[in-house]
Amino acid sequence: MSAADVQAVQDFVLAEASLLNHALYREWLALFAHEGRYWVPLGGIDQNESDTHNALADEDRLLLSLRVERLLAGRAHSQQPASRSAHVLQAPQVDLCDGQRAEVYTPFTYVESRGEQQIWLAGHWCHRLCREDGAWRIALKRVNLVNAGAAHLAIQLFP
Asked: Is residue 47 part of a domain?
């Protein structure tokens, strides 16, 4: 792992959170690889990766793009008023980085607000990044919530 690659991967994860915090969802979607996936397992950290049917979200690029367009269209009843979010991250920990692949662990706190309602979540992101067209892209973003199996209010955005 070169120090430059590790720094680039850490910067990538921090920039992703900034895009989400600023509701730049199309730009965020562009960070995903062609076969990229966003997954929030109901079992959290204990859920096996082959057990994908049990999820708060399990979305490929197509489903993510549909959700992004829904959020940005301004016609979704659940988005009147629009939700806002804040991701507060600890320093991303790069566990693997060979120049073509990277695995990153990032603890976070997430707040989603819509009108008077606020949702607070905590957990950690597990990113699997790959090189695609010379740039880092998200092959898998796994969001392990601390209280993954609990009953949750309707989460509108992307923890």
From this structure: yes
